[in-house]
TrEMBL record:
The keyword Isomerase belongs to this UniProt entry's keyword annotation: no
Key words, A-Z: ATP-binding, Cytoplasm, Kinase, Magnesium, Metal-binding, Nucleotide-binding, Transferase
Metabolic or biological pathway: Metabolic intermediate biosynthesis; acetyl-CoA biosynthesis; acetyl-CoA from acetate: step 1/2
List of catalytic residues: 146 (proton donor/acceptor)
Pfam families reported in the protein's UniProt record: Acetate_kinase (PF00871)
Organism of derivation: Rhizobium mesoamericanum STM3625
Family to which the UniProt record says this protein belongs: Belongs to the acetokinase family.
Protein name: Acetate kinase
Function: Catalyzes the formation of acetyl phosphate from acetate and ATP. Can also catalyze the reverse reaction.
Length: 393
């Protein structure tokens, strides 16, 4: 008898993360995970923790199109599994989507209309969605939105200092990485209930990076605003930049907005500052002054954003590190701590070096945790909730 499974696709700027879940009991239980490294020659890595396989995907001009997704599903389903649903992470929900939804032609059209606000991510998600429908037109597909978690924010957090009509038309702060923050908030309530209801800043540090200030698991403010370019410097993205610089660059360096956009997304951040790499691990292993300066700037800006978010949430009881950098690079966490000792943050040296769950020293005024995020679990849980609600109606 074939087993019914749920599949989740998490399309990022540099990879496609895939989750496989047993949904036979009505809940989503992880069966396996996979990741497609994007690039000229895509490669699939899949399996369970103790049984990992790596294969090259067929080179194709359509990138994450039908051919690639067909190869991925063939490997994961292994002929004895039926797809119960496919859930997707979609970065931008704009003012339209405040929670997960079933995917229809109309919904996909609305998601496409938001592409100018997430040009790096939105097309990738839509390409995967279309590929799945092409392969299996009758499959149930759902979308979970990164921006939805932040719809709890008040107008002071979301408003830019521009005319009100522009704000009402959607030019405002949204916040991103919401699926990650939702997972962390849920996990904290179970793991450390005395902290889960307190004032928490979570730092999601990866190729794309942001921070979120939460109270009782609810988003109050975030570092990213209108786009995934905003906030702290990232691997190749600039982070917050003086608007006057953009005007200057348009007048002097770049003939149009498209070229400026490519510059801000792909040639700035740690890569731009170091001139070496946007990869923090590569920079940690490089002893040239420019590499050290890029890392120092990264930690300095993150610490500064933690201070700003502490104002937004009225204090700071706990700091959570997650994402690839946040989970695996003690040097970065230590670099951030150095700027926050005045707030009372103190990391336990041994715990930090070994990537322990509880990172703070006993005398620290602020709790510190390392919690691996699981956006795919949130997507799967939301997909089941949407499908269940739909069947009730």
């Amino acid at each position: 008898m074939n087993k019914e499974v749920g599949v989740t696709f998490n399309a990022g700027s540099s990879s496609l993360k895939i989750g496989l879940f047993d949904i036979g009991s009505g809940t989503a239980k992880r069966l396996g995970r996979a990741v497609v490294s994007l690039g000229e020659h895509p490669r699939l890595k899949y399996g369970s923790d103790d049984d990992i396989h790596e294969v090259d995907l067929p080179d194709s001009s359509d990138g994450l199109g039908t051919q690639a997704i067909s190869s991925v599903l063939d490997r994961l389903l292994q002929g004895d599994r039926n797809i119960g649903f496919v859930g997707h992470r979609v970065v931008h929900g704009g003012l339209i989507f405040k929670g997960p939804t079933l995917l229809t032609d109309g919904v996909m059209s609305q998601i496409g209309s938001l592409t100018p606000m997430a040009p790096l991510h939105q097309p990738q998600a839509l390409k995967v969605i279309n590929a799945v429908f092409a392969l299996n037109p009758s499959v149930i597909q759902t979308a979970s939105f990164d921006t939805a978690f932040h719809t709890s924010q008040c107008s002071l957090a979301t408003r830019l200092a521009i005319p009100r009509a522009m704000h009402d038309a959607g030019i405002r702060r949204y916040g991103f990485h919401g699926l990650s923050y939702k997972y962390i908030a849920t996990y904290l309530h179970k793991f450390a209930p005395y902290i889960g209801g307190a004032r928490v800043v979570c730092a999601h540090l990866g190729c794309g990076a942001s921070l979120c200030g939460m109270v009782d698991g609810v988003s109050i403010d975030a570092s990213m605003g209108f786009s995934a370019l905003d906030g702290i410097p990232m691997a190749t993205r600039s982070g917050t930049i003086d608007p006057g610089v953009l005007i200057h660059l348009l007048r002097s360096e770049f003939p149009d907005a498209d070229k400026l956009e490519d510059f801000l997304y792909h040639r700035c951040g740690l890569l731009g500052v170091s001139g070496i790499s946007g990869d923090t691990q590569a920079l940690l292993e490089d002893f040239r002054p420019a590499a050290r300066e890029a890392l120092d700037l990264f930690c300095y800006r993150i610490a500064g954003e933690i201070g700003r978010l502490a104002v937004s949430i009225g204090g700071l009881d706990a700091l959570v590190f997650t994402g690839g950098i946040g989970e695996h690079q003690p040097e970065i966490r230590r670099g951030i701590e150095r700027h926050l000792t005045w707030l009372g943050l103190s990391l336990n040296e041994a715990a930090n070096k070994t990537n322990a769950t509880v990172l703070n020293a006993k005398d620290s005024a602020i709790a510190a945790f390392l919690i691996p995020t699981d956006e795919e679990q949130v997507i799967a849980d939301e997909a089941l909730a949407v499908i269940s609600q739909h069947r009730l109606h």
